[in-house]
């Protein structure tokens, strides 16, 4: 396990004083006085549906992070456009609702809101969100960089990382353009020859890489003037996922000022470092309300967005000056099993995606 | 009349002619029931002292070690003494209402020749000096000259021992009488005393306290010389004060620290530090170790007026707050007004920290300095023209990078912390009556953290002070100051690398007169004019590739006109009053650009209608405030006083901060058309009592403060270079209240203090809409609300060479806003739901420090003096939390982290030297 030191604010204290002993340690979480609030979140965009809305209860922060705590089932949910059309939603998994009407598609210039009636009869709705146009992605860039990392045994070493960024052109229309980027990855995982089965062919699997979990990359809209924007998206260690081909799939999304403000606050809370000089945290107001009980605190946001997306491939030859170790060459038994049968890797497939470039 | 002293106690007077045969406690007569077996008379006398709360003076002699059995049943002190002393040849008599003198009966009944008294005097002197080195024994007049009236007039002159110049304003204090006199413009004093023995303390700023034991027989002239303070670097004493100041001063909540006292406290890395020393005083706290600034009685950091002579110091911190910017070698003294501040001070709500810089030596060349773990300092001083003109130059510089290199973290090793400060001062005496000083000051800090970010901040100032004694009753002080504070936050490497600058500068002119209307009434009055210039923010991209756009907020201007008058009036021996009035007109003036919003609506980005250009000198908004200040002292007896205080304070310049600790780039903002001046009403009451000849001081002070128009920030507000700053701010009210209990021992081998403070500070922001409200409009705790605070400061002065200081501090953990749940949206899981503002607390804090100082002794004629101080800060290595924060490592669960800024014991060694 290696710790990458990139959060400067985190180390402002180290800088001066934590020079004899470590100065940050974990203490037990105080779980008294936890709140239990309704959370509704989802979005609509200008790409083909279906669209998803999730309804759940807020969790105790000692719970497992990826589990959706307490899904709220049996709700009647729909998305409504400002022009009147709407689509009802069905519960495909506990607490997860999906639009039924595949012809129902977000359109730039229209506004949308969601409505939900829970099993207990309480109704909730979001404020209307306008689906704003998004400027196109001009170009995805990448480069390799070296960073110093601190290993388990306190040894500092220099390692290679890859950095992705995006170029986009903010239109000169006098309006602010608030943007958000999401991205996913996909890579080729190649088996190694099995000495016990000499003639078995070595296969390649295509494996999704969940790289934007908890990453929030947003742009504050600028000042309404034309601007060539380059935004750093991700710095990722160069591991064996880059041994053959890596596909970086980028989604550039438009946001309303309200949605931007929401994500900005989420970012502020998720990326907290505990620095002396950090802005103290606060509560995040979403755009979901209970019209009958305006004082009820409901969390979450329903937003509308236009999306432009691009797939970008990093081939091994593009980064041939970087040494990448193949973990399969020196694998422990657990990893070795995967190296001999790539279908054991989570969500992997042997089928090459139609968009794939070698 | 017979006057003599016995060995066991400090002093005594026997006025045989007026001997009182009966000891009566005030009120009812106290009795004792107790039996003693095989016990020495001396031991029983000691018990009686405690039981009857009085002092018994006697000469240890054979008869007092006589052992015996005694049985007392409901006996008065008189009866007990008679029986104890029966057959010993000893008698007793009362002295005033708190002492008993035991002596041979023949002494109590007879007159003796002057030879006898002389012999007696010699015996006493030897005894006294062997116990209390440094106290002068002085006989005034001649026994043969004693008159029947019993009243003696002593007059004389107090002079500087080196220059033989008169010292103007030195105080001579007779602790037995609870009163004193000051020297006049020629250094003369005169005082009427009864025949007897007195402890005399003479004080003047910059001089060693002169302690003398006077035996007064008849009219005489008594000239005394005081020696310049030989500042050794480790002593801890509160100085330049009358011995009974605790009880007798009119103002309460005034703390004075000398350079000596500051230098002796065990400090972090052995660096003597003004502000860290203040934190040991009741009512003064900080949000955490290494945080910048200090909080006084529930006020924020920005509510303290910090003065170096007449210049405002906007940021008194080096290295973000681990050290303060005042050079301890150049300090004359430090005064902190926690409660009612006199009318000559103003412009901040909660306190005044007045740091005085001293003149260079008028006699000889001196070098002083210190070598510490992270910084060193040196100062030079010398006469330019002997006894007329002098200079002093002092500087400090840090070399802490080697420390950073010890940290096995690459980014830390690539970081840099550097700071320096430099003071220079030339003083010229035109005559005994007129003096000019010109002082300059600069302080600079540069911090870079790897390639990630940096701070760069600087204070520069120059001031001219002219002091003129217009006539013996009227003294004028004129000062002119120019100073500026500039700070920058630098992001050197990222794709949006930038440098953000802001700053404030001002010209200040002040004229203050002190008029001694009578012996009982002193008046301070005058006026101040200040012109401010404030650069609220300028962003410049760093490097060619930066995506940051250049942005500069327009400079803003303001003017401040102040008139003030404050009188100190001794109405009677028991009642004294200090009362004053301060009037301020504050103007936010053009040129400038003012944002305009939809009429009557709260400033919001959405209600902005445009901007308006304001012409040069045009008043954008003006405010007038009248601030009454009044304090009163009522002496309940010579040892006890009750004090009351009320003051109104107004603040026109606001430090806007939205972080737990203030930062170098926290902006200052004028009161303008959006931000009205803050206002506070401060009430305080205190009971003060000294014991044992002012050796022990105790006090209880209660205070209550109500603040209006407090400036608060909205959740998630972005204050940096924000041209719509007013949209991020909210207005609220505040209250702070507390009790400060303090017991202090001033002198002796073991001295120091124990202070307990209970203090609360709360705020309330209740806007029209939820987004303009904090914590649903309820009262919430300030960042620095720490109810319980206990401080123990102990000095063991084993002798002049060896000293040990031990400090202990405990306080309640400060409030924090903490997660009380989580939720997820889209690809982001585990978004914490935070509590209402400051609803929870971090763990409590406590710390033990120790310091040992080895000095060269105290021979004044030594040319080279040096001392070593070894200290351990946080001896127990307690991991006190500065903050508790929450992180999500990788994709794991939320984790509570405790940040302990100084989480281990920090030893340090400092070498101090002086060449004179």
From TrEMBL, chain A:
InterPro entries registered for this protein in UniProt: DUF4249
Database matches in Pfam families: DUF4249
Superkingdom in the source lineage: Bacteria
Name the record gives this protein: DUF4249 domain-containing protein
Native organism: Agaribacillus aureus
Species classification: Bacteria, Pseudomonadati, Bacteroidota, Cytophagia, Cytophagales
